[in-house]
Design a protein that fits this description.
Layout (H helix, E strand, L loop, with lengths): L1 E5 L12 H11 L3 E9 L7 E5 L2 E8 L7 H22 L7 E6 L5 H11 L2 E6 L5 H5 L8 H16 L2 E4 L2 H10 L7 E3 L17 H6 L7 E8 L6 H9 L7 E8 L3 H10 L5 E4 L4 H10 L2 E5 L12 H7 L4 E5 L5 H8 L2 E5 L3 H13 L1 H18 L2 H10 L2
Parallel strand pairs: 1-2, 1-5, 2-4, 5-6, 6-7, 7-8, 9-10, 9-12, 10-11, 12-13, 13-14
Antiparallel strand pairs: 3-4
Helix pairs in contact: 1-15, 3-5, 11-14
Amino acid sequence: MKILFLTLHNFENINSSGIYPDFIKEIANRGHEIYVVSPREKRYKLETELVEKGNIKSLRVKTGNITKTNFLEKGISTLIIENQYLKAIKKYFKNVQFNMLIYSTPPITFYRIIKYFKYKYNVTCYLMLKDIFPQNAVDIGLIKKGSFIYKYFRNKEKKLYEISDYIGCMSKKNKEYILKHNNINEKKVEIFPNSIKIREKKLAFSKNSEILKKYQIPTDKTIFIYGGNLGKPQGIDFLITVINNFYKIKNSYMIIVGSGTEYNKIENTINNMKIKNVKLLELLPKEEYDELLKNADVGLIFLDRRFTIPNFPSRLTSYMEYSLPILAATDKATDIKETLEESKSGFWCESGDLATFIYYANKLSEDEELRKNMGKSGREYLEEFFNIEHNIDIILNKL
């Protein structure tokens, strides 16, 4: 089979791990050829390039800046990326007859590319739904509902759902939301969870003094870690409230690793308030971040409380992979709460509820046996429900 995969994920390092690299490599390992089209943002000052490694053909297309930039630049870059991708695909893959086209949101602006391949070559089209735009932007005040820009993107969203043969949703609530708010044939919508290649378990619970010493992190504290985007969707105001009150969590230390539009806001808070038990680090090489996860005790998830759409952060699987218990502070729309309860892998509170957050954080900080049991349960849940091999079976069965 020849499969074309469109994404906004950075594929400069195909050997990295995560929901998208693991997905790509597993398809290739099954003997199929996969052609990946990903952005190479202009800040890197690199031209479009095709890199081949075994069954993986990675086309890195020079685009505008999509990440780590303001809303206007991101919007413009997202609007024009469709033409940039299609032009590059026609140039580099002009003689390839694809059997399947897979694409993930964001963005929702791949419609013309999908239409081109669907009607010219009759390929099967599969949407991996990772966000629900523009409603997510409406929820956090970036777009006004009913505005011209909202109607424009909403129309794009409807067309994307209509042209897709199948829509894979991250969770049960994700699927319910899409069906409730759109006129879609229920038969083409299914659960397609964020999944990864299952790797070796975290065997030791002792701290690696070298990696912690490098970043001046104490080894005698309960280490809470947050890794990922630091933007408006994460409800940064509540994260800052937690930072300011983290001294209330006994014998604990927090590490925040990431980048995004709100990074400086967090940095200024830590510096201005002279907070000593919170460390902020910019994005690290994957190997170093994974090493920090191995040495952490609790994984943190934050989402803005205003969301009405059911987000499902992929960092959940990262924490489960390393047997970390999870403390999540999110909106009520997501089914993260139900997942944590079902998997017995952590605690949930609504974003903004500081008292409950502090209560659960202290509970986790003080009880090592509780942390180990929750971490073990999360790891077992990951192996049963978030194994990338199950997702590949779902995809290939469509062919």
